[in-house]
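Annex B. Sample input.
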Amino acid sequence: MKLALGIVSLALVAQGSPTVWPVDSTTSVGGHAPRVLGAPRVVESLHGKAVSFDGIDDGLIVPANPLAGLGAFTIEVLFLPEADGPAEQRFLHVEDEAGARALIETRLTADGKWALDTFLMNGTNRLPLLDRGLLHPTGVWTWAALRYDGRTMTSFVNGKKELEGAITFPPMQTGGRTSLGVRLNEVYWFKGAIREVRFHPSALAAEEIRGFAAEATALSAPGSPPPSAGSSGR
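Annex B, continued. Sample output.
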């Protein structure tokens, strides 16, 4: 029995457990005390408590970089974008002290839809993945993901693969910060809510990426009325 348990434990260590950040507080995110920008609010949703951002000056700066040292990784985020937010929103930004970064972003349309934009940069190596024709409805909870397998970045929305491209992205250095609701330099604010972020120390298989059908999560943004029916500069 002890031998079997030891084998299971080694297998779990080899696979790697994700770092999970429930975003349900403005005073603690993943066990870290964030710097609070503006006045983000804790709200209730069918997925549990979430943090709502106003798209003007609300944000959380977390003094941690869960991607440090990883040669492959997957970031998953459960979020709800509102229809009347800014056209360009960098709502999840991870960066080390040398300036290497990973971002998950949205680009909104005038009729209340959004496209996913993911971005990696390390030194002179940089890659955005954005197709403004791949549109999704605002006002619903959605899983977005950025996966890097050591050679290729791939983006997903609700578990469905969208775009991919090749990039050399060496492991980030120890140290760094993560921002929620805004870019780390406090521009490109996000209007909507974030419920959870997951940082996996591996490139998940496509079938492992989280997602669900939009019709099962057609929830209005917490505290707001129901929703109606840019550039890639970093």
